[in-house]
Design a protein that fits this description.
3 helices; 45% helix; three-stranded antiparallel β-sheet; alpha+beta
Length: 102
């Protein structure tokens, strides 16, 4: 998948590849083009942070869905924690003087 995002125009397209159309060993370039699907992602008009906070408050009130599920939030937090731990480990390695032989 690929996202094409134009922040100035507030446009977003999602491009994906239908691999089932690419089953043969030799694929003609026109078949490649037919395997690409483009979907427009609708973007609400307004200031992004205000929209995000409004959606969050509505989800807390029970009058709408949040931008992401609780599971997606937990998964994102787990990834962020793993990245942070790896960054700390890497910083400790860089802070430790290495011998000239290594």
């Amino acid at each position: 998948s690929y996202l094409s995002i134009d922040l100035f125009e507030k446009k977003c397209d999602h491009l994906s590849l239908d691999r089932s159309l690419l089953t043969s060993a030799t694929v003609h370039p026109l078949q490649l083009a037919a395997a690409i699907h483009k979907d427009k992602i609708e973007i609400a008009d307004g200031e992004p942070l205000r929209l995000e906070l409004t959606a969050f408050l509505n989800s807390l009130r029970g009058s709408g869905e949040g931008a992401a599920s609780a599971r997606a939030g937990r998964d994102a937090l787990a990834v962020a924690e793993a990245v942070r731990a790896d960054m700390k480990q890497r910083a400790r390695q860089w802070a430790t003087p290495q011998s000239a032989a290594s």
